[in-house]
Amino acid sequence: VLVLRYADYSASNRRAPTTFDVIDTSTLSDEVGMLNLLVAAPPLLKRTPWATFYTEKQLRTADEYMQAIQTSLGAGLSTTTILFDLMPVSYISRFDTHSNAHECVAACAFGNNDQYFERLSWKRPSQLGNPGGQFFLGCDHGQVAELLFNIYVRMFEHEGVKSLVKSKPTSHQEGSPIHYCRRTFALLIFELQRRVATDWDKMVSSL
Fold first, then answer.
1. How does DSSP classify residue 112?
2. CB burial class (10 A; 0-12, 13-18, 19+) of residue 194?
3. In this predicted model, what pLDDT tens digit does every residue of 79-109 receive, in sequence order?
4. How far apart are CA 170 and CA 174, in angstroms?
5. What is the C-alpha to C-alpha distance for residues 151 and 148, in angstroms, rounded to an integer?
């Protein structure tokens, strides 16, 4: 167990690590939301080709796992890769070294347990050809505003009229945790400002 103490990060003691080669979040994406993880954890990841960020998500056997991941992100995986400089290795390579076939087989065999875990390893694509470097994405402010608006709608879809008037209770109404607040969205914008070059004043007005 890694214990980080405040005294280790004082001004007089700069030997404690502030970035890491590996960050493993286990199943926190289900518990706190994927976007919360992307805002909080990747800034602590080293800018090297081997630095890896792990996530693990609980899925049903009927789910298509990449589609489920994109739903939890609120945007397409390609868009997320560009914005956050993070990419699931299996998405680009089309194969994975982690097998969960035994979980899927067991789920189908028992019927009443149709869930399994999908583990993803994320890397920084900008580091694969330029270790230590950093890229900036130039975008039209209107496109950025539209993208962030769509993410915002997905983050707070449980507050929408359609969700409230449904006769069948939604997953949120059934007791599933609500992961996001307005602070999450503000921190998301703050994080993107470090990588996206656009007219941010106009973007905010458009948003």
1. S
2. exposed
3. 888 888 888 887 776 666 566 666 666 666 6
4. 6
5. 5
